[in-house]
Amino acid sequence: MLRRACGRVGSAVGAARQVAQVHAGERRGSAGGDRSGRARSGRLPACLRLSRVLRPITLYSSAHSRARAQCARSPPPISSHPCTAFIPRGCLGRGGRVRNSELGRTGAVRPLWSEADSLRERIAEADSLYGFFSFDTALSQRASHGHLRTNPAARAALIRLCAATRTRGAVLSARKVETMQRRLRLHRLAYVGVHGTDVQAYGLRMVTEPDLELAEKAVQKLRRACSRLPILQAPGIAVEDRTWSLVLHLRHAEPQARVAAAEEFGKLVAAEELELRHTDDSLEALPPGAAMWRAVLGLLAGMRGALPVYVGAGEANEEAFEILNRRSAITVHVGPPPRTGTNARWLVADTGEVIRLIHWLADARRRT
């Protein structure tokens, strides 16, 4: 056991050093990124996740260079639509590809409103419907000062949706349920917080939360360890305790402090055998087994036969997209899809269109 722990810590240190080297190259103005494929949606151990912190720019390997040269000699056929062009495996597209993971399809993610008529018929004919909306990426947007601002029209739209025939709604977030309840003030919604460890809903559901008592103890132990490290008290760095997860915020820190803090935080997370997630400007320690998609399946178990509609963006939501696509769900990405692709089948432009989408769902269900 001691040898295994030493191996995890050593891997975390090596990964963090790689982050520091890549970040230094980015500061000097190095360009290019590995756009050859989409990262898998599953979570990795903490020591391996550090290499993805701060959106590192990865240099192309020699294999990619050879692939680029091969594509230059025999370019792929030109398509009238940029998202439907076929790119040979191993060749790098100029702008990255947006792919769809639905079996049997070769097309890319499509604008939802271009297929609104066929989707409306499907929604209206469904025996029941369960709508899932990411609080962080579908119902809120980041203000200029850095905090999330909930769309003021979200509450009224969700009220209409939940009042429709055999229709339920849920909001999901990395934040605690009480934060979402304070913002939305709706009792008919299901709330999924802290990546599926905090669930509050009415009606039947399958319990999918990990052992919350063990998770809370591990997180509190990690928090105490973080409080003893001076690097985690540096200006611009903040540690947020969400009871069942611990978040290291790096948005306002200096670049060197960000790298050093990420390295030390990763070692502490590995020592507690927690899982490490990353977002654009933060790291989050989670108990093993915590996942948004697990909570979604638990809610769907209480409403069998319901058509799932999932709207969001980001890594945690990509996992849900992939799982729900196997259940013929309507999966919708909010905003421009990432260069590495998305598992969602449709997209809308922004949170404003999400509000329009919710009203559109409510109208379709009310006509049944």
Give structural notes.
By secondary structure, the chain is α/β, with parallel strands linked by helices. It has a domain at 110-209 and 290-366: HAD superfamily/HAD-like (Rossmann fold), CATH 3.40.50. 38% of the residues lie in helices and 16% in strands. The protein has 11 helices and 14 strands. The strands form 3 sheets. An 8-stranded mixed β-sheet has the order 1-14-13-12-2-5-6-7, with helices on both faces. Strands 8-9-11-10 form a 4-stranded antiparallel β-sheet. It has a two-stranded antiparallel ribbon with strand order 3-4. A hairpin with a 5-residue loop joins strand 3 (140-142) and strand 4. Helix 5 packs parallel to helix 11. It starts with a helix and ends with a helix. Mean pLDDT is 78; it is low at 1-6, 11-42 and 47-107.
Question: What's the layout of helices and strands?
Answer:
Elements: H1 2-27, H2 46-49, H3 62-73, E1 110-111, H4 116-125, E2 129-134, E3 140-142, E4 148-150, H5 154-162, E5 167-172, H6 177-184, E6 190-193, E7 198-200, H7 212-227, E8 238-241, E9 246-249, H8 255-271, E10 275-278, E11 282-286, H9 292-301, E12 307-312, H10 315-325, E13 330-334, E14 346-348, H11 351-366
Parallel strand pairs: 1-14, 2-5, 2-12, 5-6, 12-13, 13-14
Antiparallel strand pairs: 3-4, 6-7, 8-9, 9-11, 10-11
Helix pairs in contact: 1-8, 4-11, 5-11, 9-10
In which range does the helix fraction lie?
Answer: 25-40%
CATH topology of the domain at 110-209 and 290-366: Rossmann fold
Task: Give the strand order, joined by hyphens, for the main sheet.
Answer: 1-14-13-12-2-5-6-7
Elements, N to C (H/E):
HHHEHEEEHEHEEHEEHEEHEHEEH
CATH architecture heading of the domain at 110-209 and 290-366? 3-Layer(aba) Sandwich
* CATH first level of the domain at 110-209 and 290-366: Alpha Beta
Whole-angstrom Rg = 22 Å
Q: What class would the helix/strand composition place it in? A: alpha/beta
How much of the sequence is in beta strands? Answer: 15-25%
The number of helical elements comes to 11
The general outline is globular
Largest sheet: 8 strands, mixed
Mean pLDDT metric: 78
Write the CATH homologous superfamily of the domain at 110-209 and 290-366.
HAD superfamily/HAD-like
Low-pLDDT stretches: 1-6, 11-42, 47-107
Alpha-carbon distance between the two ends = 60 Å
Strand runs, count: 14
